[in-house]
Amino acid sequence: MTAPVTTSVSTSVEGGSNELSAAQLIERHRATLDRALEVIRSREYWSPHPEHPKAYGEESGAAGSLSAGQGQAAFDALRGSRFEIDGQPGQSGPEGGWAATEVSPYGLEMGIEYPRPDLDVLLPAMREAMPAWREAGPEVRAAVCLEILARISARTHEFAHAVMHTSGQAFMMAFQAGGPHAQDRGMEAVAYAYEEQVRTPGSAEWSKPQGKRDPLNLSKHFTPVGRGISLLIGCNTFPTWNGYPGFFASLATGNPVLVKPHPRAVLPLALTVRVAREVLAEAGFESNLVALAAERDGEGIAKELAVRPEIRIIDYTGSTAFGDWLESNAHQARVFTEKAGVNTVIIDSTDDYKGMLGNLAFSLSLYSGQMCTTPQNLLIPRGGITTDAGEKSYDEVAADLATAVGKLLGDDARANALLGAIVNQQVRERVESAASLGEVALPSRSVEHPDFPGATVRTPVIVKLESAEPEAESVCFSEFFGPVSFAVAVDSAADAVAVLRRTVREKGAMTVGAYTTSPEVERLIEDACLDECAQLSLNLTGGVYVNQTAAFSDFHGSGGNPAANSALCDGAFVSDRFRTVQVRRPA
Amino acid sequence: MTAPVTTSVSTSVEGGSNELSAAQLIERHRATLDRALEVIRSREYWSPHPEHPKAYGEESGAAGSLSAGQGQAAFDALRGSRFEIDGQPGQSGPEGGWAATEVSPYGLEMGIEYPRPDLDVLLPAMREAMPAWREAGPEVRAAVCLEILARISARTHEFAHAVMHTSGQAFMMAFQAGGPHAQDRGMEAVAYAYEEQVRTPGSAEWSKPQGKRDPLNLSKHFTPVGRGISLLIGCNTFPTWNGYPGFFASLATGNPVLVKPHPRAVLPLALTVRVAREVLAEAGFESNLVALAAERDGEGIAKELAVRPEIRIIDYTGSTAFGDWLESNAHQARVFTEKAGVNTVIIDSTDDYKGMLGNLAFSLSLYSGQMCTTPQNLLIPRGGITTDAGEKSYDEVAADLATAVGKLLGDDARANALLGAIVNQQVRERVESAASLGEVALPSRSVEHPDFPGATVRTPVIVKLESAEPEAESVCFSEFFGPVSFAVAVDSAADAVAVLRRTVREKGAMTVGAYTTSPEVERLIEDACLDECAQLSLNLTGGVYVNQTAAFSDFHGSGGNPAANSALCDGAFVSDRFRTVQVRRPA
Fold it and tell me: Of A55, A360, B76, B424, which is most buried by a Cβ count within 10 Å?
């Protein structure tokens, strides 16, 4: 243990000069860690981070957390200023500087400058911080990580605005997905990392019998050792939710983490870095175990960083092209990717037609479909489907779904609360040109945002395709990220399954959904998902949606099809981030 | 469960038409699996496979196992014949054929022809076998793997000859390392694989509170799913010991395994494939879950196989050049490599000079140093060392070590029993030219083998180098696989540690050894090994050697330096061989 024994403890979100002993941190967080360890094995429901904004205190903030007003004020204070990270090396090096690249999808001026460090100065400093962090051991590292998460949780209102104005998510989604849900995923990763490291004991006595001679006796010591600097390449749409698993898995397993955020979504991860450095310093470790590397527009430093010898782990969420490039070129690192896929829903039959339409309408609308888990291809038999509301033709299903989406988003206030803003120009162009791809079942419409007139808000477009192949092949087997989906006519349920298999195998899928009342069809779909390694949600008609997964219970992605090479979170996501070094001596 | 319920059970090494139910297999092997699961967590000594040849029955074989004579006879019967693998597809395809490439390092005529299947026929058949194997579940798969190991164990005498006459190991080493030790490593991998798959339950009920509304309820099912066909690229020197971990880890996690042996060491793995197919068939599974692909001289089918889309996992032991190639090119697969390294022993001081010399002499001599774990660079302060036998100069240490090796191998019978045969021409040339690299402390000598006059047997050569760098840099930082080691003069213990660090970082190391009575020096060496991720053995003077590791307790390699990207065996070695597919439904 290298963490100093001290007496003062801070739970204040202000942080500062307080110090935290290892024992204090463990006492504070051990019960939570133990509960997390139980739940990743039981997969029951659990979350230590409340979803409702009111839980964080309406006025002055509950239990040291920022209230809604304080969170808004904290966010406002950050805008138009330089985001200093105290003590982060590399600012004064020949390559050091500042970068301001964010543009709120809501049109709000951001104007925040972030550190763009000289990597030749920063990386050695990060590497030097490793030995003391290694010596701290798995339990102290886990406790430090949980303290970081607790401080982030206390500032959820501030993070919500940061996520909203970088990703374009509506406020409530930014609050929940960018706050408690992301924190849950981070804690899940800490639990997996801890469990993996303590599978091997710290020491063991080994005694091998030698018949009549004395046994051979050895004392063995085992130490989990981080691989080296871990690089987090952040994404635009879910900077914290997609970033926290890799960030905390690497930190908890003994690795420094260099955060390279998406140029359009720096703030949520910059705040994370600042909190992490504050906690690390208070706990007596080098704050340079966590650092931020922002970049100027068009620099593409991820490509340079990814192949540096100091970088031994990479976490990436983003385009398939760059993910494939990383997998093919960053040989010195263990690369974890989440790329793009084409998500399918098979609509074969249902005993709750209204529930199905409502559920799908929500899935297609949430965050304007800008999720890696949003369904794209809705496969519907051209002969129609059986439902509790009678037989429905393919045209009727497409029309009824269009009506359901239209109703869900008919009210502009509700539409804004659900859709959020279009994150970039490419998505907007994709929505606007989708109508040319086929018969439009539901046109996209533009929605005004009462508070942010600069926001681009669009409802989903649904396009009918007469078949999946061969005519519509280039459409069906390409990803249309954003609020674009296709009602695809197929010959039969079996044909739908064949299209599903091909889609997952060739393009990958983060999610598969299906509606069927037939055990035979259900079995066909399940087998396809098992064979092609895709996560399946069946007959969702209520308040759970195919595009949402819950930490501690659901796996996000499978890691076994082209959409991602890893899953959140499992043993494989953490086990290769460290190695176990053994020292043996005669006993 | 797809394995049929049957009544007859066979433990006979003859195998044949018997059938095994899943329940029978589990009953037979569950206790062993449970013990293995305990020991991989306690890291205490354990082995279910006896090391002594007599344990297998001297006359007719104990408990269904082959006696020494029966093992010899079984091996003899294989020579000069075609090694048929019943029912393995691809022999009659346009590319199908036979290959005979083995040459015993002892000069014994092998003349065995092995299947060289048409891969376009074989691979689809292997892929088709996956779903039923997946449905069997982790426990049945583990039990089937343990049954395979039990049948291999019963034939250890036969395997010993097969390993001896392909690797060149002496009989006793071939028996132990190729038999029980390899089987231990295989079982260890099965235990890790089982534990990893059952971390997630088969099913879970998830209930999320919704305040005053009804909770959201889902039923979730989780299935471990193999990644796809696993390719084992075997090595010449330890076909079973280095092959079994990957073989069993992949099979136990639901993957078919295609075995591509080294052209000079086919038989041990061909026997393994045959036993595995026999057990799989008896247990009601497709025997094509395991197959053999031999190749003709110079074909290099590993390179072709490694990038085929059907191959999703690769296990490789061999040269750094091809290991690096695999890591850089087989992007569609998860690649586990053990390559080459430069192993160091630091000799700083000792309180058992005689024990140290004897221990090192044995390590340098065992299997003519043809182990990835054999020490190469012995770093000795040029000012001498402190020992219980007084101060010893650098020259004295080198001379005394030479004397110790000379004494150990002075008797030809003992020399043959320890050295085995030189595995190939390249190693022989390396030994013969080593004398030109510096002053020779111990020349290599040629030993006649009384039973096998064709065997090339060579004692180790020890060459003195006046410094590690810069003059001798190209020698010190290159691997000299075989019985070649260097007594390298260094300035001090601190200098030795610096050379060690550089060696591990740049060239990798499977093992590091050190002798010191100084706590300060010990700490320096430990820190270096933790920083550079190398496995350290301190002050070995008795019957445990730096180049030997024990399954269930020792990690073989660290996976964190250039010598290997994985370790035998840990969570990371198994966790990414399967993915967990989830199906969720409203409860």
Answer: A360
